Amino acid sequence: MKKVLWAVFVAASAALIMSFLPQPATTTSQATKTVTYDVACDGNTFTLNAHDSSATEIKRGDTFVLNGKIYPGGTIPSGGTKAQPSSFGPDQEGSLGSWFCRGSFLVGSEKFDHEKIQRATTQYFALNDKNRLVTEGFEGSTDTTRVVLGGVGLYYNAHGLVTMERIGVNATGAYNMRFTFNLE
């Protein structure tokens, strides 16, 4: 009986001591969730804050804000140019919420056609159901991938990447865009 009690005591003591030792690193794979939203930007809300009020063109360091409306992914048809804009704009029914963008120009107007990176922006996706997403990144003459900084509600603790794709121009003179989020 003493041997059995002694064995139990030794095993329990060893287990207790082992619990305090560093454990090997483990990784857990988090599932990736893909969510797509379309945004119709509203060119009427574009406001430029020029650091040189006498300048007639956008200069490096100028800042801006722009609003838009969020729609379910795939809602906005591709197409539309400044000369022949898409009929789908921010006044369409079925909006899921509001989109806000604030940014700074990294180059002036004279370099827009030559620089792939033109602006640094923060974008806010404020959905009507009180869920929120926030992204940060560069924008320019091509589609881009941005970082997801986080969110609120359903998107609390969300992180990952979002691809921003221009799918056309609407009648307000601003882009219609598709955002594909890959969230962990």
Concise overview:
10% of the residues lie in helices and 44% in strands.
What features would you describe in this structure?
With 184 residues, the chain is mostly beta strands. The chain has one domain: Allene oxide cyclase-like (AOC barrel-like), CATH 2.40.480. Helix content is 10%, strand content 44%. The chain is built from one helix and eight strands, in the order H-E-E-E-E-E-E-E-E. It has one helix at 2-20, and strands spanning 33-49, 63-72, 97-105, 119-127, 132-139, 144-152, 160-169, 175-183. An eight-stranded antiparallel beta barrel has the order 1-2-3-4-5-6-7-8. The protein is globular and about 50 Å long. The N and C termini lie far apart (54 Å). The model is unreliable at 8-29 (pLDDT under 50).
